[in-house]
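Structural prep section.
Before we set up the soaks we want a predicted structure of the protein with (2S)-2-hydroxybutanedioic acid in place, mainly to decide which crystallisation condition to try first. Input record follows.
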Amino acid sequence: EETKSWEKLVNIAVSGAAGMISNHLLFKLASGEVFGPNQPIALKLLGSERSIQALEGVAMELEDSLFPLLREVRIGINPYEVFQDAEWALLIGAKPRGPGMERAGLLDINGQIFAEQGKALNAVASHNVKVIVVGNPCNTNALICMKNAPNIPAKNFHALTRLDENRAKCQLALKAGVFYDQVSNMTIWGNHSTTQVPDFLNARISGLPVKEVIKDHKWLEEEFTEMVQKRGGVLIQKWGRSSAASTAVSIVDAIKSLITPTPEGDWFSSGVYTNGNPYSIVEDIVFSMPCRSKGDGDYELVKDVIFDDYVLKRIRKTEAELLAEKRCVAHLTGEGIAYCD
Ligand code: LMR
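Run finished without errors. Recording the tokens verbatim:
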């Protein structure tokens, strides 16, 4: 087993590689904490013309760290070169939102980037590349990317909602007075936006339904939900820029969830393609849903979840928001003329 895993490098492409999120993420990848202590990796770093100097600096720091598992570092600004043979594509590069902006306000600016990167992945990446889209609005960017990469299975595209899941777990644990490892089955439904639905109906604390442990249901419905929905925005207000370290941690969590078997009875959230979903969520969008993995890089949707009016009503709202975003990028998905509300 061991010799086998030493034989082959895993090719990891990262866009926005000179940015803040990547500066945390790349050193985690290189250290072995993501793919394990026996798995050598190659990092293919995509920057922009504007960031190429900074990217050279990042590559220097990676080299100077003498990570035993880091066998190759390449940098570039052409996705058709950088994405060559990528088995993982972590698409972080995009203009981030500033104070007072909604993530959807970035649709125009960032959509184009993801169309181009989808085309590049389609042309040169491994045909089973797993793509995790982080740049906002990440659900719709993931959809754009997917639509421009018809040779890659639609299932392979993820929009990062793991940060929202982690935020929700933390708040539930704080409220219940338990350590956060006691919180499980945490679904984020829908868009990585303020319409997202952190599902306290199916989530569990120490194996019990959240509502049995936290009796203050008004807190769950109002404060908790809003806190998770607005956490990213509040952080931008306070820090003056969007979350970086916690985002990198959640990317690590998202990758690990796909390459290790999901613990019995638990699940994780990821924004994935809705075709064939068992929840009657509208098809042909990227929507955060509960997933399980055998650890092979793939996932299946969890079937045994329950719904109530509260959750369903909110699912419809986040679904409507994603449909509106989709209409607004029709020119980028090859589906006609864009119409923005
Ligand atoms: C976050 O959730 O912190 C990121 O998506 C950044 C943002 O715009 O909120």
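Observations: Residues 217-239 form the longest helix (23 residues).
Flagged for discussion at group meeting.
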